[in-house]
Design a protein that fits this description.
The protein is an alpha+beta fold and 299 residues long. Helix content is 22%, strand content 35%. The protein contains eight helices and 18 strands. The strands form four sheets. Strands 1, 2, 3, 4, 7, 10, 11, 12, 13 and 14 form a ten-stranded mixed sheet that branches. Strands 15-16-17-18 form a four-stranded mixed sheet, with helices on both faces. A two-stranded antiparallel sheet has the order 5-6. β5 and β6 form a beta hairpin. The chain starts with 13 loop residues before the first strand and ends with a strand. Keywords: Isomerase, tRNA processing. Its EC number is 5.4.99.25. It catalyses: uridine(55) in tRNA = pseudouridine(55) in tRNA.
Length: 299
């Protein structure tokens, strides 16, 4: 007669900040960390392409309910744009579709092109992207040989800095640092910079340095997390990412039951609500004179 297997104690709810390795998909990382953390309840706050490395924010247990809100925060990247070659994916993962000498492109030309792609801009996502077109991912249609027509979308590139320009024959490699809104494709910036300079361009390197308040200084590699799975407690995670509101005992009871509080004009976006003892109660959003619950975390 087999002995019943002991029920595994679920891990604490919180965030895991991963330094994603190259060639891993975001789904690969989630699958690995489900085994490490000992729970199926793991998700990510925004994908990174397999080629890219850097900060990938994972939510565990109840913290998976934070991910949609964290995905909308500002992000930072370091990357390298190669001028003189275009690819069908706008990055080094794809096939070269056109080449042109970039030898005549000066550093001033590069900086002017970068300046034109800074601020509030309209950006057409790469054809090989996860955006849905008529219910199907664009990359599936593109890989099936279909020409995918994607509409330009507004994004904000708050910083787009050139850190180094290197030349190799007819090619020019431009190292850049970018701070941008959610939904911005860095490989589309590479494509559009190359197009504006008349020589084509694609992304050859990408490292995400920050997602909201979480940066590389708090990120850990898969190997480090496998040895010691550090989970950032939910209360600490919310306090770092969103404005904080502390409430009284009476207000805490109201919030726990999904009740609404009067607005304190703390700004747009999610606000973390904490009880008198520092317990995270909920995420709320101000709407006029009242707050609306986005997620309640207490029983």
């Amino acid at each position: 007669m087999s002995t019943p297997r002991a029920k595994r104690t679920p891990p604490p709810s919180g965030l895991i900040i991963v330094d994603k390795p190259a060639e891993w998909t975001s789904h690969d990382v989630v699958g690995k960390m489900r085994g490490v953390a000992g729970t199926r309840k793991v998700g990510h706050a925004g994908t990174l392409d397999p080629m890219a490395t850097g900060v990938l924010v994972l939510g565990v247990e109840k913290a998976t309910r934070l991910l949609g809100h964290l995905a909308l925060t500002e992000k930072g990247y370091d990357g390298t744009i190669r001028l003189g070659q275009s690819t069908n994916t706008d990055d080094a993962e794809g096939e070269i579709t056109a080449s042109a000498s970039a030898a005549g492109v000066g550093e001033d030309d590069v900086r002017k092109g970068v300046a034109a792609l800074t601020g509030r801009i309209m950006q057409i996502p790469p054809q090989v992207s996860a955006i849905k077109v008529n219910g199907e991912r664009a990359y599936k249609r593109a890989r099936a040989g279909e020409e995918v027509a994607l509409e330009a979308r507004p994004v904000t590139v708050s910083a787009f800095e050139v850190t180094e320009v290197r030349r190799e024959g007819d090619l020019v490699d431009v190292d850049v640092s970018v701070t941008c809104s959610s939904g911005t494709y860095i490989r589309a910036l590479a494509r559009d910079l190359g197009a504006a300079l008349g020589v084509g361009g694609h992304l050859t390197f990408l490292r995400r340095t920050r997602v909201g308040p979480y940066d590389l200084s708090t990120a850990r590699t898969i190997e480090q997390l496998s040895a010691d799975c550090v989970i950032l407690p939910m209360a600490e995670a919310v306090a770092a990412a969103f404005p904080r509101r502390d409430v009284t005992e009476e207000e805490a009871v109201l919030v726990a039951h999904g009740g609404r509080l009067p607005s304190l004009r703390l700004g747009k976006g999610p606000i973390g609500v904490f009880g008198p003892d520092g317990t995270l109660l909920a995420l709320v959003e101000e709407q006029g004179r009242i707050t609306k619950s986005l997620a309640v975390f207490v029983p």
